[in-house]
């Protein structure tokens, strides 16, 4: 029996074998975008989580969770999205379903909750999230929201994010369906505004939308609305007037972009503002799509100016990080791809990489970028992550809050590239922030005591 296959069988569930490959040793295509294997304790999040991630940064909306109180703990505070206006989104409201509601239904309780919230917090839009228990007891969210919308003359939008019916990616789609209902023009779409873009898949963690907005402004491009970082009702209602959609997180927003192209003839492109290489390439692609010579001139001046500021610092960090090895496990494929390039910029080799919601084309790109021997895996569980980090000799794990304890228990450095960080990682300033955080963590004297 092949040695690699034998080791793999000792490490993972039989059903997981097709979701893990080692570059150079296996020619098969990685299996992804499937249901998590029962018993694996997957790191992947639930349907409701995926929907809340996308919609919660809508700052002036009421976000009402129809379900047990525990689900309401996933809120703004976990995501870290910033606002330049309303702070309403920082509240997480719940119908707090109990045993009695499970038996007799929670529709009346939901209707009362909407009435109370609208009276207390005047707003133009309410998002009502379905949770696992709602899917089980069969409450008709659509009917309750429709009645509440007519009663209060505002938009009350159901988010069909009940669990037991998919994974985090299904939650992304449920959120996009809700956004499509919100942005639908009440009359024929207005003529698109020239040189304007919608920025899809950025949730303004640590103010990252504002960084990219400033770059675009310097080039001569207006940011129409971000989906959904620092967005609000009125801005979202004008989303169909943009002349281009750019997508940072394809996993969460590709469906919305495709539907907007079908319905409103707005073209889209995938971009990434993580790292110097991808930031420069993305800005060039955006400018090329408009075909304006003056924009190109402004862009090249911006790239020279911003690169000259950060290049010496990145070179300094690169000298100190040569030879270090990183393991990556993040939510989407776009982020994983950019991180490979970012680590290459500062002299770090990626030896293990995986995502929760990566798509087939993203894994193909990952396979092309990494070195031979790198382990690539989809929808991993803790035992798999621990096994391959140790086997590959990783010095650093990049992940989210669920992965942090795994790294520290193994005596490995950890970098949070997920929701609750307080520093931006997008653009040129973000590239320096990541390099600084990596160096500070890896070069800490604490590791000599492990």
Can you characterise this structure?
It is a single chain. This protein has 450 residues and is α/β, with parallel strands linked by helices. 46% of the residues lie in helices and 15% in strands. It contains 18 helices and 14 strands. It has helices spanning 3-11, 47-55, 76-79, 99-104, 107-120, 132-137, 141-152, 168-183, 208-219, 233-237, 250-264, 276-290, 293-321, 333-345, 360-369, 382-392, 404-409, 427-442, and strands at 20-22, 62-66, 93-94, 125-130, 155-159, 196-202, 222-228, 244-247, 268-270, 325-330, 349-355, 375-378, 396-399, 413-416. It has a six-stranded mixed β-sheet, with helices on both faces. Helix 5 (107-120) runs parallel beside helix 7. The protein is globular, with a radius of gyration of 23 Å. 49% of the residues are buried. The model is unreliable at 1-9 (pLDDT under 50).
Structural class: alpha/beta
Give the strand order of the largest sheet, numbering strands 1, 2, ... along the chain. 1-12-11-10-13-14
Intertermini distance: 37 Å
Radius of gyration: 23 Å
- How would you describe the oligomerization state of the chains in this entry? single chain
**Main beta sheet strand tally, sense and closure:** 6 strands, mixed
Helix share of residues? Answer: 40-55%
The percent range for strand residues is: 5-15%
Chain-averaged pLDDT? 91
Number of distinct beta strands? 14
* Helix count, DSSP H or I runs of 4 or more residues: 18
């Amino acid at each position: 029996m092949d040695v690699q296959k034998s080791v793999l069988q000792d490490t993972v569930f039989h059903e997981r074998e097709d979701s893990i490959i080692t570059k150079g040793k296996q020619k098969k295509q990685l299996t992804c975008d499937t249901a998590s294997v029962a018993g694996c304790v997957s790191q992947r999040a639930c349907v409701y989580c995926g929907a809340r991630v996308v919609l919660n940064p809508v700052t002036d909306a009421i976000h009402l969770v129809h379900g047990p109180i525990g689900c309401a703990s996933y809120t703004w505070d976990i995501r870290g999205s910033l606002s330049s206006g309303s702070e309403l989104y920082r509240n997480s409201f719940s119908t707090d379903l109990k045993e009695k509601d499970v038996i007799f239904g929670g529709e009346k309780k939901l209707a009362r909750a909407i009435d109370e919230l609208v009276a207390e917090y005047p707003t133009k839009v309410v998002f009502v999230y379905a949770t696992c228990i709602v899917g089980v007891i069969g409450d008709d969210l659509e009917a309750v929201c429709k009645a509440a919308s007519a009663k209060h003359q505002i938009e009350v939008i159901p988010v069909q994010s009940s669990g037991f019916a998919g994974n985090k990616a299904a939650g992304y789609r449920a959120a996009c369906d809700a956004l499509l209902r919100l942005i639908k023009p009440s009359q024929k779409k207005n003529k698109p505004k020239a040189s304007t873009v919608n920025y899809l898949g950025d949730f303004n963690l640590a103010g990252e939308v504002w960084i990219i907005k400033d770059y675009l402004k310097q080039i001569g491009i207006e940011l129409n609305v971000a989906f959904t970082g620092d967005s609000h009702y009125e801005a979202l209602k004008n989303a169909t007037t943009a002349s281009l959609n750019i997508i940072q997180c394809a996993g969460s927003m590709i469906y919305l972009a495709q539907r907007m192209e079908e319905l409103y003839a707005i073209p889209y492109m995938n971009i990434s503002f993580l790292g110097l290489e991808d930031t420069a390439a993305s800005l060039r692609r955006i400018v090329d799509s408009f075909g304006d010579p003056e924009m190109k001139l402004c862009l090249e001046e911006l790239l020279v100016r911003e690169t000259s500021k950060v290049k010496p610092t990145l070179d300094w960090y690169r000298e100190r990080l040569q030879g270090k090895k990183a393991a990556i496990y993040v939510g989407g494929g776009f982020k994983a791809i950019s991180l490979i390039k970012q680590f290459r910029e500062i002299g770090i080799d990626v030896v293990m990489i995986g995502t929760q919601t990566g798509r087939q084309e993203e894994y193909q790109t990952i396979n092309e970028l990494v070195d031979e021997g790198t382990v690539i895996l989809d929808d991993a569980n803790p035992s798999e992550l621990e096994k391959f980090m140790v086997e590959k000799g990783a010095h650093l794990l990049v992940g989210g809050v669920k992965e942090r304890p795994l790294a520290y228990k193994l005596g490995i450095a950890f970098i949070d590239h997920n929701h609750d960080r307080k520093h931006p990682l997008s653009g040129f300033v973000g590239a320096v922030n990541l390099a600084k955080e990596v160096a500070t963590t890896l070069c800490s004297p604490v590791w000599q005591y492990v």
